[in-house]
Amino acid sequence: MANTPTTKPVKPAEERNASLRQLVLFAGVCLCLFGYLAASLFYTLPSNALSSRQSKGVARHALNILTPENWAFFTRDPETAQISAYSLGADGAGRNLLRTPQGAPSNLFGLSRTQRAQGPELGFLNAAAATHWKACDGRLADCLRESSGGRAWRVKNESPVPTVCGDAYLTQEKTVPWSYRELVPYSRRVVKIVHLDVRCR
To answer: Where are the transmembrane segments (predicted)?
Structure first.
């Protein structure tokens, strides 16, 4: 008769110790992970009472190397200049040529894709007018009035769905910083403008 191996029964105390070790290990890993994420988030926030973005601390430097992705990795910086297009009406007022917002009735509540094609179109016009931009730091109406008396540079609109044709003005506009929003009556200011004579197909 062959001997059958016998297994040593696990004692309840040993089971509790093994479960406790696993729980402590899991809690330690979670603590390290969430602590690292919290520190990374803290050091990517704007300057505040606890930390300055201009500081040269070791922790900030190390985390910026290990975790270089901040909010700019996921979205565009809202303080960068945005390209807009305008035409002058008969009354001398500027008329926005952008087909925004996407959900407007004129865009069939989002079904029309014309507005989405304006980005590349404005990009082509911007490249064509790259050497003709003029600085104009002020309100849109003032910049349009100043630029309307100057030369209109002729460019060709290569877009298959042109939305900017004829006498038009491209502007580079910056959003007023949040901390200054109560000090000025406008939300965006023009920093550059160019007067164009846009030839469409």
So the answer is: 23-45
Sorted by where each begins, the domain ranges of the chain are: 13-66, 82-200
Residues 191, 174 contacting (CB under 8 angstroms)? yes
Query: What pTM value is reported for the model?
Result: 0.60
> What value does the mean pLDDT take over residues 41-58?
70
Nearest to 80 by CA among 168, 195, 192: 192
Helix (H, G, I), strand (E, B) or coil at 175: strand
- Phi/psi at 60 (5° precision): -60, -45
Strands 188-199 and 153-156 come out as: parallel
CA distance 155 to 166: 10
